[in-house]
Amino acid sequence: MSRDVFEIAESIAAGQPPDSVALEWLASGLRKWRRGVPLEAALGLNHAGRMRRRNIELIAAAEALRGARDISGWDLAGELSMRVKRFTSGKLARYYRTGDVSTFDDVERRLLAAALSGAPTTSSKKNLYRFIKRDKDSLPLSQQPGEDGITPTTKDKT
Prior knowledge:
Distance between the termini: 34 Å
Strand content: under 5%
Order of helices and strands: HHHHHHH
Number of domains: 2
Largest sheet: none
Radius of gyration: 18 Å
Number of strands: 0
Shape: globular
Helix content: 55-70%
């Protein structure tokens, strides 16, 4: 499925009529539910789904923070850790009070999506580095950082 299940659920909850992708998601989930799978799990809205959504958003926040800079994954995790801490102690609280996202940059929009996933958001540099490294390792070798396109960069902490 090309759209995230949480996006589909949010659009339906907001009153938008379901499109063909949303109807197929609902039908598939309800068939699983009829076979005895808990509804949250059948629709992919369980804790595991929330964790996947959070991880995707944290990786996207890291990529937005990286931009075109040549920065190691460890240093990027450190910067992201600081941004998560500042965001959760300031702008996230303001968002909950006002709903205003007009001053959010790309990184903060992704951090908001991670926070709204319902999964606990981590600000640990070590955990954020694991997400960043796991995402980088899932790329084909030709797309991984490295001078020859095959050997991974030595800038990342191992």
